[in-house]
Amino acid sequence: MSDKGKILIISPENQLPESLTKAITQLDLTCEIRRPPAHKDDRLDLSATDAVILNLNQLAELEQDDIRQCTDDLKQLSLQTLVLTKSLFDGNTAGISLPDGMVCVDAGESAEMLKGRLVTIMGAREHLQVMNMELQQLRMLNGPLNSHFTQVDEEMRLAARLQRDFLPRNIPQFENVRFATIFRPATWVSGDIFDIIRLDEHHIGFYIADVVGHGMPAALLTIFIKRALVTKTIQGHNYNIISPGEALKHLNDDLVTQDLSNFQFATCCYAVLNTQTLQLQVANAGHPPPMRINRLAQESELAISGPLLGVFADADYETEEFQLHRGDKLLLYSDGVEVAFVSAGPDEPLRFRQECGDLAHCDIKTMTQRLVYLIDHEEGSLHPRDDVTIVGLEIDPPAAEKTAEPQVE
Asked: pTM to 2 decimals?
């Protein structure tokens, strides 16, 4: 078997341009001339070929079925092709496009020019073969990868549905207290969780917990928090409502006892409201303080804080008491809400409070709906940086102050 480079010339005629013959001789190449396949099903043996030359009278001959079949074979074998035509500039090239890897030249080019072209396309053969092999490997991986990603996507959908099943399906109803909620995970699943629980005929407990981090690990820990937060104890026919501070202390002890491997911790704000006296008990574990808005649309924070959950064993959490009044609103929210309104850099951390102040005249449901509208129109809202969760309540205002509920624009 010869070590010389092999050129296959596909030509309807045996007579080759003199410059081409000279170039092949000077490069000391092995040359074989064949006619185009007579039938579509015929195949040329191209296994030992380094380059191919199509010698055509007119470029339009590439439109023939037999020539197109040949060029498909050349493309699959990563063979670059030199197309020589005697009518390159005769106006017959309109509407004709060459496949990738084919170079069209005038048959009247000099031997030196043709030598340079042949050396170039033959030198590219090895690189094209490597690239073609890598492409085939990628195509082989494409099927399993698509299947894997489809499975992961389905599992994440199921996980998101399961997490939502742990949220309250029916918010307890009281004659003089109304609730509204927002739950917007940044990805399929959320590191936030909330609950609103009727503790007895006149007490209701509600909280937001926020696990540090995102994705599945954070979502799994929210489910643990949901099950571990104890709000009251029952002994026989008697029950005891646990104060928010005690509830967070027990929850913290449970988290610390788990000795989580990735040092995961959480924040939480838990409150209990007496719907008769409107007395509010609150405890906070590193969470943003609740926002109170009175019936004059004046907003303020309930100053209460405490250590993170899951960090320090035997940590204590104070239960603070506040007196609410008719017409008051209260917002518990995760820190992702503040982040959602920071579009102009770190100098804008308090914009969420400003937006709430502007919406303070709205009822609690309309307020949360408009906050969602504002968040959705913020820069970067298609790729949120954090989970967004809000639990809002409103105490019915005095009868004389009740007005028709404004509509969301």
From this structure: 0.64
